[in-house]
Amino acid sequence: MPSGGNGVGNGAGTSGGSQTFKPYRHLKTLEGHTAAISCVKYSNDGNLLASASLDKSMILWSATNYSLIHRYEGHSSGVSDLAWSSDSHYTCSASDDCTLRIWDARAPYECLKVLRGHTNFVFCVNFNPPSNLIVSGSFDETIRIWEVKTGRCVRVIKEAHSMPITSVHFNRDGSLIVSGSHDGSCKIWDAKEGTCLKTLIDDKSPAVSFAKFSPNGKFILVATLDSTLKLSNYASGKFIKVYTGHTNKVFCITSAFSVTNGKYIVSGSEDNCVYLWDLQHKTILQRLQGHTDAVISVTCHPLHNQIASSANHLDRTIRIWKQEDA
Amino acid sequence: MNAPIIDPLQGDFPEVIEEYLEHGVIKCVAFNHRGSLLAAGCADGSCVIWDFETRGIAKVLRDNDCAAAITSVSWSKYGHRLLVSAADKSLTLWDVSTGDKIARTTLQQTPLHARLNPGLSSPSLCLACPLSSAPMIVDFEIGCTTLLPVCVPEMPDVLAPPQRSKCAESGPPFSPAAACFNKCGDLVYVGNAKGEILIVDYKSVRVLALVPVSGGSAVKNIVFSRDGKYLLTNSHDRIIRIYENLLPAKDVLRSLEDLGKNVDGVDGVEKMKTVGSKCLTLFREFQDLVTKMHWKAPCFSGDGEWVVGGSACKGEHKIYIWDRAGHLVKILEGPKEALIDLAWHPVHPVIVSVSLTGLVYIWAKDYTENWSAFAPDFKELEENEEYVEREDEFDLMPETGKVKVSSVNEDEEVDIETVEKDAFSDSDMSVEELRYLPAEPIPDTNEEQDELKLIEARISASPASEEAVQNGHVTDLVSSPQGEMGETRGKRKRKPSEKAMELQAEKAKASKASGRTVREKSRAVGDQEIDESVNGGGDDDDDAYY
User: Fold this and answer.
1) Which SMART domains does this chain map to (chain A) (predicted)?
2) Greater confidence, B492 or B262?
3) pLDDT in tens, B357-372
4) CATH number at residue A113
5) Domain-embedded: residue A310
């Protein structure tokens, strides 16, 4: 729900652009990684920020003062994705060493489990809302579902796609999984049975670089490598909104929904900027400049109007942006 | 929810055994309010709670004082408490999230059935039905038991005096009676040996109404549907009867009192019968005319649309499913192990049945992938459709390029945040429901890490071993007791030799004592087994695999 503290009406109910958009301003730059940063994510309680990098480590930052809390080492190869459990106690990282690791986000910050089974780079990972299961997608073209408690692989969806899987996400009640892949398709799976329920896109190109459910689980945001972001009502299979203007042809850039104050779509871009679109009107509201290389990952704080973004090799920093107050 | 994209043509009841769960010898099962957790009582006195989504054990409740077989388990409304009745005449109330014992009491007789009051969020009041005495209300807080009347005395105007002691009423010796709470927990419906349903106000220990069951044979089970609209009785004459509940959902006591006041000119038993006829009406009767079998554990489906009854005649494991109109829609046949308990999942078309050997079988629909799922513009048709081509379809026209006419209004407002009200949440949301037990990852130990690294190297080399290792959960029942069910996972047939090996390994470990610590160990050892099997090593239990 929007925090509404700024006294500005939110998108729903107002027609036209009568709402004044408050621009985001750069707050802080975080340094600490020695290679491209593949993913940043805020925890659900808003107290922590985690970042994963190709330098094989993951860093835990405080989301209040952005100090470095802990650096997780253990993977033998670069980390491509990370996910938070719903209670903000655990994170899971997906790495090119074909494993996933579950880390404790509380002292002593141990690596609790190593999930083995994939036979190629693990590219994407997510917890389900009750956080008793983890879904992962890999270059071995399979999707695996793991039990958090014991680490055992509960299900393997083989031949899920015909090329590396770029993104996996559970919906709100954990009954569905959406997956996107380089083979250009975006599919919805029944989480319990592992059967394919629907295919959203099936063109060979462009590749689907990212897919996730909206907060209420009714829509899917899909990013494709032709610099387009689409919002689809998956029940009808139709794309109802299209967001363009950014550049996304090479990297699997993550996008996010911003709902704390006004509804926006936020995404990184290969022109080194962070883009913000109005959800309903699809207009570009702001381009955040400052990074010196492609912005690979963005995340929105669950409670405050803050965005964290991270960039590629030449930059290696995380930038925090905060919306101006009234 | 995913309702819009799931194929509506599939029936809403299970068809095949999907999996089985094992933990010692299970005696009885119960789902929590949403079906996310399954509690089961074991023959050794412990109680295990499975996370039904992951099919892994979430908690084990073990009482060192109690080593007798559990006779029933019952959840509180929001899933915070669990009531367990055991063969040593005890009733134990557990707090589910902490795993602590809240209270324990011992009765005079072994309770066959014990149910927590479904109307309260933290109930300490329960209904217990012992083997050979009247059903009683046990209050853990006050620490007393109240016997409920089982029959209405023939003399008019005599109300059974409230009894706070444990001695039996004067009169004929008791035969077992079945009892259950109504949906909001302020009335108890008792089915007695004379074939009558008594509606009892347990607080004042009065019988408010009486409904005679046709045929007059003893009532063995009495159960409400989840929404409280239908009542099911299972009688000794092997007939299951469905009654429609005419009383309103709220303020039931007052309505009953009013009904009683409005009945003039009759007293005593006749009055009760008149009031009773306004509370319940007979809706349907089910029986198997051919074999006339005794039904075990009959109950409703979660949405009340289906009625299920189990049969254990001649040691078989059969589940009969009727629709509420009385048509028998399916008979599920399980392995040759007598069925002892049954539960229908509150939300999904899933049935859980317990066999005499202590295994919990999970029945689910046979999922076949829908062809229309594979491409975005595929649609499933019920029958062939004649294709009518467009007027200009075959005209020779220069290609103007594929113009996809977008029929969607792109300016429509999109709502990404509101969630529809959950059909399963009741209006009282002041208490938070316990849906899941937090999954805390069990830390790997160092030796496991090294073992698994070896396996990892091997797995990347050999293509055949990509299968997930499952602890005793056999999804492909090729090597299980009955071969018929092996067709469930036709698409995922594995190499039988490998599967048999894994099963052997798991069975060898699983047959040892149950309990959480041993389970962890068996998992570790199980992994070792796989390691050795892959590396060609042998084990004392099994022969060399390769």
Assistant:
1) WD40
2) B262
3) 999 999 988 877 777 7
4) 2.130.10.10
5) no
pLDDT in tens, B28-37: 999 998 889 9
- Residues 473 through 532 of chain B touching chain A, CB cutoff 8 Å: 523
B308-327 tens-digit pLDDT:
888 888 888 889 988 888 88
Model ipTM value: 0.78
The shortest C-alpha distance from B449 to chain A (Å) reads 8
**CA B309 – CA B322 distance, rounded (Å):** 9
CA distance B454 to chain A (A): 11
**What residue type is A87 in one-letter code?**
D
Residue of B129, B136, B123 lying closest to B110 (CA atoms): B129
Residue A141 domain-assigned (yes or no): yes
| Residues A289, A274: Cα–Cα separation, whole Å | 7
Neighbour tally for B117: CB within 10 Å: 24
Q: Which amino acid is at B449?
A: Q
Q: Domain limits at A218? A: 35-258
Instruction: Compute CA B200 distance to the chain's CA centroid, rounded to the nearest angstrom.
Output: 26
Rounded CA-CA distance A168/A143 in Å is 8
Residues contacting residue B82 through CB under 8 Å, at least 6 positions apart: B39, B47, B49, B61, B73, B74, B75, B76, B93, B94, B96
- Can you tell me the distance from the alpha carbon of B507 to that of B480, in angstroms, rounded to the nearest whole number? 11
Q: Is the pLDDT of residue B112 over 90?
A: no
B471 interfaces chain A, CB cutoff of 8 Å: yes
Residue A170 falls inside a structural domain: yes
- Averaged pLDDT, B431-458: 68
SS (H, E, C) A292-320: CCCEEEEEECCCCCEEEEEECCCCCCEEE
Name residues whose C-beta falls within 8 Å of residue A152's C-beta, 6 or more positions apart in sequence.
A146, B56, B468, B469, B470, B471, B523
Q: Does the residue A263 lie in any domain?
A: no
